[in-house]
Amino acid sequence: MSDTPDELLREILVRLPADTLLRLRSVCKQWIRVIDDSSFIKAHTHNQLNSHTLLVKNGSGAPLYSFDLDSLDFINNGPQMVDAIHIKQLVHLGVPRLWTLFDWSVCNSLILIIKNRDFTSEEWVMIWNPLTKECREVQVPKLNVTSKSCRYAFGYDYDSDDYKVVKIDKLEDEWQTLVYSLKSDSWRKIEDCPPSIGDCNSGNTSFNGALYWPSRDTIIALDLGTETFFQLPLPLVDRSEFGIFTVFHLDALDGCLVCSLDYSKRYTFYGWVMKDNGVEKSWNTLFSLQYKDNLRGLRLVAYLKGKEQVVLQHHWCFLWIDIGTNSVKKFSIHGFPGISSSKICPGSLVRLNVRDTAIGMGDVSAIRASTRKRKRKTEITVTRLKFCVRYVGETCNSSCYESKCRLCRLEKE
Predict the structure, then answer these.
(1) Are the C-beta atoms of 108 and 350 separated by less than 8 Å?
(2) Most buried pick, 30, 178, 298, 335, via CB within 10 A?
(3) Is residue 131 classed exposed, middle or buried when 0-12, 13-18 and 19+ CB atoms within 10 A define those classes?
(4) How many Cβ atoms from other residues are within 10 Å of residue 141's Cβ?
(5) DSSP track, 23-44
(6) Average pLDDT for residues 270-279, to the nearest whole number?
């Protein structure tokens, strides 16, 4: 193993999933050195932008699960098994139960969690890596005046190689904006956010070094490098024909900025993809779907660019759409706890317990300490479970009855 050049080893390992790389750190010291290198982690993070691993959570206190959409066989209509990773709960002194939180943002597989501690006015903010189990609490500055409303966002600044938290407060006559730097562990005030942020009816997304908020008539964006706001146009639609849209979302999927609108008046769900960032005419129609009344509340969760496929979520069910053949299949994952939301989150090697860098796996002393711990026991344990994927209208057959499929096991008993 030690005879393999670091450059060759790096080119091989950078293509592997993050959870696999964590286990491979146990192979030898050379592999630890390569995987822990900050430049390798940065390259691996960029390589994961096209991943289709879905992180699923609910609001009833159940754990998180993640599974790879590429593992599903949409050609076969019969039941199939999906290999899902069980993510353990975040246990930290003074931290509320993670799974009861409803406000979460994801950037490069790091999760920003926001909640009022003990239901008081004191805000609690934390950045969490669900794969490495590391967390970083962010001390929120107190305001001299009362904030009427508050919005948080989380993104990555490519220019400074830094993760940033953005806090926007509605004061008397302004939307005050503060930016937190993970590298410097400090807040600073920037220009006020445009007032149209008040019309935003959904969350934000991080894409290509900027943050995006969907508003009623425009898209508000913040360049994390220059820390200046700008605006983007919406896709050109005839609102007189379709009525007022009720759901407007922006997502960074498969390396693209994707816009989705749910026109409730015509029961039509539209998706657009932006080819050239910031250019109005670069919005191209990705797909359109007419649905029945009982499918209100659809949410675009994945875009498989190479396969020309998209995945939509409706409560605990999913819709798989083949854009090329214009075919739709509805499927559900049996055995999962009740699903409330899901996001693309392939896993990250970014370490959060190192103050001098937001990307590196740690300083020399931290690496040596983890190496000594590795000799006594495995540093990272990944629990995998199998769940049953069934298309609507299909019934389970005997071949699907596996001991680790929760629902099938109950049905068999």
Answers:
(1) yes
(2) 335
(3) buried
(4) 11
(5) HHTTS-HHHHHHHH-HHHHHHH
(6) 77
Joined together, the tokens standing for residue 136 give: 């970083």
Cα 405 to chain centroid, rounded: 26
Regarding beta strands 64-68 and 247-253, do their DSSP bridges make them parallel or antiparallel, or are they unpaired?
unpaired
Cα distance between residue 261 and residue 365, in whole Å: 50
Q: Give the pLDDT confidence score for residue 240 in this predicted structure.
A: 62
Euclidean distance between CA atoms 78 and 395, whole angstroms: 8
Over the stretch 133-154, which tens digit does the pLDDT of each residue have? 888 888 888 877 777 778 899 9
- CA–CA distance, 223 with 275 (Å, rounded to integer): 18
| Least confident window among 78-82, 179-183, 292-296, 379-383 | 379-383
CA 132-137-139 angle, 5° bins: 165
Strand order in the sheet with 205-207: 205-207, 210-214, 219-223, 228-232
pTM (two decimals):
0.80
